[in-house]
């Protein structure tokens, strides 16, 4: 059984529950997706399906050859499945896969912030602002000892490129799933900017 979809972030809004409380939700255009490739244990060593999402206006020759007689799609993503015996090429999956109350994991590309300092990137407190310290407000401070180890250790938190990474937010509650409009509302925020590509998977059940 396929447990995920590809979608596009529309933006955030709010909905009111029957009790009158308000929930901040993210609206996602989820699917419909078509199965473009099936991977099996015998051939690839694991079971998975590749889903296609979005209409492509133009593809190169290898991309067209990969899709064969299927509709031209813009985005391809792979989802692991336990059993592919009942799945066929071209099989369509839509947002009816999810029901209100389900928990989902959403993966996307976070917003790029460019080059950022330690205060913004790692929430450093900055240096002292008194006692003659006029230029230490946002400085990183010491980045390692001199004699031993005598070098900067890998992974040291410093200024650098911030954001624009693959990020997953886990166990978000599905508030509404509307197959007629391919609309999925999930509680809370998801990674990325508007129109960003998202992968939505059912959360694994914790024992």
Task: Tell me what you see in this structure.
The chain has 207 residues and is mostly beta strands. The protein is built from two helices and twelve strands. The strands form three sheets. Strands 1-2-11-10-7-12 form a six-stranded antiparallel beta barrel. The radius of gyration is 23 Å and the shape is extended. The chain starts with a strand and ends in a 5-residue tail after the last strand.
Brief digest:
6% of the residues lie in helices and 41% in strands.
Biggest sheet, open or closed, and with what strands and sense? 6 strands, antiparallel, barrel
- Distance linking N and C termini: 20 Å
Helical content stands at under 10%
Supply the helix-strand structural class: mainly beta
Oligomer: single chain
Q: How many helices does DSSP assign? A: 2
Q: What share of the residues does DSSP label as strand, in percent?
A: 35-45%
Strand order of the largest sheet: 1-2-11-10-7-12
Radius of gyration: 23 Å
Principal-axis shape equals extended
Number of strands: 12
Mean pLDDT: 91
Helix-strand topology string: EEEEHEEEEHEEEE
Low-pLDDT ranges: none
SSE layout and pairing:
Layout: E1 4-16, E2 22-30, E3 33-39, E4 48-55, H1 61-67, E5 73-80, E6 92-93, E7 103-109, E8 114-116, H2 118-122, E9 160-162, E10 166-178, E11 183-187, E12 197-202
